[in-house]
């Protein structure tokens, strides 16, 4: 007869996400995970696989928690440009107000693992592509509705905003102060006028 799990895998995954997000992949040991999750190493391996597999599952969970709302915000009916502006401004404020300096888990993964980890790189690219597509769709709608000046390329603008927003998360994690982030957001948004 199979033994039942003596822990909640969903809660354990959330705890692992928080630990990886706070410390990063390399700085988080299996001993750290065992201690934080409060489960035996064998149970951790049996449920989630390797540390790498657990990290990728935590990254997927992060995307499920933080990604879908953005696309919905940008797809709301009505003028599209205000939603884009609000999103960029929110990224700047969140980056400036990140007292724990955790940054964005996806951006952290891009910096730490993506250059040498194909699975992590794919996950990062999927996340960024979803954001880029949502921005491009909103900016295309804005152009169709006459909110953008003629001749602006919605896809190129979406890519520029994606790069800016991810950069704001990196700069915010370093903690230089909110003025740099707000100024960058304002200057980027001026390109939409």
Automatic annotation (TrEMBL):
Taken from the record, one Pfam family name reads TetR_N
InterPro entries noted in UniProt: Homeodomain-like_sf (IPR009057), HTH_TetR (IPR001647), Tet_transcr_reg_TetR-rel_C_sf (IPR036271), TetR_C (IPR011075)
What are the entry keywords?
DNA-binding, Transcription, Transcription regulation
Ranges for domain HTH tetR-type: 6-66
* DNA-binding positions: 29-48
Translocase among keywords: no
> What stretches pass through the bilayer?
none
Q: Which SUPFAM superfamilies match?
A: Homeodomain-like (SSF46689), Tetracyclin repressor-like, C-terminal domain (SSF48498)
* Top-rank lineage group of the source organism: Bacteria
Quote the PANTHER family the UniProt record gives.
HTH-TYPE TRANSCRIPTIONAL REGULATOR YJDC (PTHR47506:SF1), TRANSCRIPTIONAL REGULATORY PROTEIN (PTHR47506)
The name this protein goes by in its record: TetR/AcrR family transcriptional regulator
Q: Source species, please?
A: Streptomyces roseoverticillatus
């Amino acid at each position: 007869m199979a033994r039942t799990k003596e822990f909640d895998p969903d809660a354990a995954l959330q705890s692992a996400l928080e630990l990886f997000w706070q410390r990063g992949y390399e700085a988080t040991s299996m001993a750290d995970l065992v201690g934080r999750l409060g489960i035996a190493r064998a149970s951790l391996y049996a449920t989630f696989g390797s540390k790498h597999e657990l990290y990728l599952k935590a990254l997927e969970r992060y995307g499920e928690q933080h990604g879908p709302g953005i696309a919905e915000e940008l797809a709301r009916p009505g003028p599209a440009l205000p939603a884009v502006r609000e999103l960029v401004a929110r990224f700047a404020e969140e980056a400036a107000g990140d007292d724990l300096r955790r940054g964005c888990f996806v951006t952290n993964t891009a910096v730490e693992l993506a250059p040498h980890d194909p699975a992590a790189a794919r996950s990062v690219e999927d996340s960024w592509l979803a954001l880029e597509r949502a921005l491009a769709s909103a900016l295309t709608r804005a152009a169709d509705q006459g909110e953008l000046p003629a001749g602006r390329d919605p896809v190129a603008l979406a890519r520029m905003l994606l790069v800016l927003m991810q950069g704001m998360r990196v700069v915010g994690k370093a903690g230089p102060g909110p003025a740099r982030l707000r100024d960058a957001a304002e200057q980027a948004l001026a390109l939409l006028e």
